[in-house]
């Protein structure tokens, strides 16, 4: 198992250094009683070279105001007003162009004048949707389930931390207890942050997440020769405490995408289940690969483990400096 974990850790360490660079975009439309529609388009300030994300509204919708753009450290938000009379928005198709090139998704949220709310997740395979009201509960569940699943599997920082937990726990019941503690930790803060009970700016959270990976790498680098530390004896304690920090990171991604009005609990639960499903799928794949490969190559496994731990520490240190500089900037 150690060889497979080490190889995966090294592969993740070679991933792009920005970790979760492409947060889902948001296209929010709010229709008023007079037929005018307030449009909010929000996307990540980071984008892949050559990509050009832009919203695509119904052809009969005409802009009636100048757009205003507000750029923060991690996102760009543009707002303007369009006139979609007399057809309105119901039964019309709208979406986002450039999702395939941008390698991201977009949440589409439409608040109609009669109080109904329509929401959907646009992807490269389905970049547009037809406005139909109201959104069925099944649509919310599947959309946010996929969003959570894809979010954790697209982030090398979270996956590196999970890999480190597997290396620290070793196997058996310790793995189960450690992963469960991490799940409980990030589920608590994800819920509190999304519901507005706890509010922490995203910049220090991202620095803290990188720091958790570095601390874990240092713990792993000590090795068994120097004797087990408190964290080594109780890996679930580290997993729970650091899981609290990672939960704030998950919450930031969910806030970036937005939540459907009137259906927050269902969307939050589905997103969290999606994260857990992705995490369990990743852990299961690692443990399966380790069981098949590990016993055959013990010497290489030990060396690969050491190399992977050093790579994890170097990359997490880079993330710490990079994110701290971005925070100060």
Describe this structure in words.
This protein is an alpha+beta fold. The protein has ten helices and ten strands. It has helices at 2-13, 99-102, 137-153, 156-169, 173-194, 202-222, 230-233, 235-257, 264-293, 298-328; strands at 25-31, 36-44, 54-56, 62-63, 68-71, 75-83, 93-97, 106-111, 117-122, 128-130. The strands form two sheets. Strands 1, 2, 4, 5, 6, 8 and 9 form a seven-stranded mixed sheet that branches. The longest helix is centred in the C-terminal third of the chain and has 31 residues, at 298-328. It starts with a helix and ends with a helix.
Features:
329 residues; alpha+beta; seven-stranded mixed beta sheet; three-stranded antiparallel beta sheet; 10 helices; 10 strands; elongated
- Roughly how many Å is the radius of gyration? 22 Å
Helices and strands, in order, run as: HEEEEEEEHEEEHHHHHHHH
Q: Which oligomeric state applies?
A: single chain
Distance from N terminus to C terminus (CA atoms, Å) equals 42 Å
**What about the largest sheet?**
7 strands, mixed
- Which structural class best describes the helix and strand composition? alpha+beta
Number of strands: 10
The low-confidence parts are: 2-21
> How much helix is in the residues?
40-55%
The number of distinct helices, counting runs of at least 4 residues, comes to 10
Q: Beta fraction of the residues? A: 15-25%
Global outline: elongated
Mean pLDDT: 82
